[in-house]
Structures are given as C-alpha cells and as structure tokens.
Design brief:
The chain has two helices and six strands. With about 130 residues, it is α+β, with helices and mostly antiparallel strands. It has one domain: 60s Ribosomal Protein L30, Chain: A (2-Layer Sandwich), CATH 3.30.1330.
Amino acid sequence: MSKTPIVTDQAPSAIGTYSQAIRSGNLVFMSGQIPLDPATMELVEGDFEARTRRVFDNLDAVATAAGGSLDQIIKLTIFLTDMGNFATVNRVMEDYFSQPFPARAALGVASLPKGADVEAEAILAL
C-alpha cells in the first residue's frame, strides 16, 4: 500500500496529528476542513455562507495540490453544529460542484474544532 501525504500552504496546515490529505493509489482521502483562513489560521469572519465557502475553498486547494479538482470528489461528508444551515450548504455546493454531484452525508454534531459550525471531508478519485 502506498501512502503519500498531500501538503499545500493554500489550505490551513494541520492543527493536530493528521495530514491535509493522503493519496493511496488513485484515491485521495482529504481531512476535514473547517473555515480557517490559511494565512492566519483563524476562523473567517462573516455569516454561515462565508464560512461554508471557506471550507470549500480549502478543500479545493487540497484537491488542486493532489492534482485534482472538486469535480473529482466521489464522497463528501459534511458536519454541522446546526442542521438548520443545511439549505445554505446545498446552495453553496451548487457554486462549487457540477453534476453528477458527489455522494454525500450530512451529520449534525455537538461541536467542531476551534468552535467552527461547519466542517467537510472528502474522498477524491484521480
């Protein structure tokens, strides 16, 4: 089994014992991204939509570093501290993904790192 780390300064650096992504064969397993600005490592300001866009911008940066794009994501998992924001996630996804959309799960959770209210992880097929 090959296990190659994917690293980019265009997305937040890992804030724990994990890699931004790991490539194994033609699959890239992308760690969860919260709405951190990669330059400051602080949560972005603004409303929930702005934070969700930052999450997808971060995923896009990691996908690009792996040699892929968001349209190659085959599985997306979204974590929300308030499921009332689910419709906003759907609306924002339309700006970042084209059909066929990735398979997806959305989970309501009690809390996320750094007090974030949204996180997304993905599996990318190159």
